[in-house]
Amino acid sequence: MFGQSIFGVHEQALNLRAHRTEVLATNLANADTPGFKARDFDFSAALTGAAAGRSQGLEATHARHIQTSS
């Protein structure tokens, strides 16, 4: 998810904030729509999940890749 970006978690945080902004904008645009239910996006939980995925290390994407664990 994070790739090899020098910006690390900051890049993902900006993407998550942008997603939440889109969700909130949809809520505002549909505020007067009958039956519309507002949604929200848990930024903290999403960022925590993304950061946890980052610490997994290298990933073998092919059966012939060298194993990195001992």
Would you kindly provide a written description of the structure presented here, covering whatever features stand out?
- The protein is mostly helical.
- Helices cover about 45% and strands about 0% of the residues.
- It is built from two helices and no strands.
- It has helices at about 10-30, 45-55.
- Helix 1 runs antiparallel to helix 2 (about 45-55).
- The longest helix has 21 residues, at about 10-30.
- The protein is elongated.
Given the structure, what is the number of helices?
A: 2
Oligomer classification: single chain
**How large, in whole angstroms, is the Cα Rg?**
18 Å
State mean pLDDT (0 to 100 scale). 78
What structural category arises from helix and sheet content?
A: mainly alpha
Largest sheet: none
Shape: elongated
Strand tally is 0
Q: Low-confidence stretches at least 5 residues in length (pLDDT < 50)?
A: none
The percent range for helix content is: 40-55%
Please state roughly what percent of the residues sit in beta strands, choosing from under 5%, 5-15%, 15-25%, 25-35%, 35-45% or over 45%.
under 5%
Distance between the termini: 24 Å
Name the helix and strand elements from N-terminus to C-terminus, one letter apiece.
Answer: HH
